[in-house]
Amino acid sequence: MSEVTVDDIGGHVAVVGIHRPPNNFFDTDLVRQLAEVYERLGSSAWCRALVLRAEGKNFCAGLDFASNAGQDIGQLYASALRLFAAPLPVVAAVNGAAVGGGLGLALSADFRVAAPSSRFSANFAQLGFHHGFALTVTLPRAVGMQVASDLLLTGRRVGGEEAAALGLCDELCPEADLVDRARARALELARSGPLAVRAIRATLRAGVVESARAAMDHEHAEQERLRSTADFAEGIAAAAARRPPRFEGR
Q: What is the Rg, in whole angstroms, of the alpha carbon atoms belonging to the chain?
């Protein structure tokens, strides 16, 4: 099976599936595949809305730093920017955890459906690292600057019910119903006039692509600066050992 699949479920809606279970770690290649699918569906005559889902335990745990130490983050973000520029509305079905860059991927969607068991975390600070994937832009847009500051500076984990209260997700349902509820929301979007939906969405998202590009450029620079620090090495080691990090500020 391909790592990114497309299923036409009728009603002018496509389900885009990510298949890297159990944690669906991404890399440049996976994000590029997603971008290509978004663009292809966006240029088609039949598709009007997308559902983004993931196979396995977790929606997306971001980049696996332990096995992708040499990953070109600049290229990854260039592909990520294409997700923000794609023209169709996206409903993400967030099962399990959306962590780090995985939270960034979830927030690149227009809407998120989650379960009480879902978990959201911008855990970068707990790794001694800077956040990325344009969370500088998307997180404050979703939850406001004060809450975004709390989540980014602490890296704390948010459960599904708190996520709904904060605005991180738009709907809660039992985990078994996640994809069905995301499909229902996408079908509702697809029943509106397709030209109007694209136009309204573009108006609402005016400046987002440009802001995301500038944010990822800055985020990437800060990530490169912090990558060589002892704190980042300690954050990765602590996460691998499932223990609290012992940061020294160097």
A: 17
| 233 inside domain | no
CB count in 10 Å sphere of residue 241: 9
Q: Cα dist. 101→24, 133, 171 in Å?
A: 11, 6, 21
**Residue of 78, 69, 64 lying closest to 34 (CA atoms):** 78
The model's pLDDT over 118-136, given as tens digits with 9 standing for 90+, comes to 999 999 999 999 999 999 9
Q: Distance between CA 27 and CA 46 in Å, rounded?
A: 29
Dig out the tokens for 177 from the structure. 């119903």
Element (H, E) at 221: helix 208-227
CATH number for position 101:
3.90.226.10
Structural domain boundaries enclosing 171 = 4-175
Query: In terms of pLDDT, which residue wins out, 64 or 78?
Result: 78
Which residue, chain included where needed, has tokens 């704390």? 156
Cα–Cα dist 112/142, whole Å: 11
Question: Is omega for the bond preceding 22 within 30 degrees of 0, making it cis?
Answer: yes
Q: In the chain, how many domains are there?
A: 1
Q: Are 91 and 48 a contacting pair, CB within 8 Å?
A: no
Q: Is residue 219 included in any domain, yes or no? A: no
Neighbours of 33 (CB within 10 A): 18
Q: Does the global pTM surpass 0.85? A: yes
pLDDT in tens, 208-246: 999 999 999 999 999 999 999 999 999 999 998 999 999
Domain membership of residue 123 (yes or no) is yes
Asked if residue 59 is part of any domain, the answer here is: yes
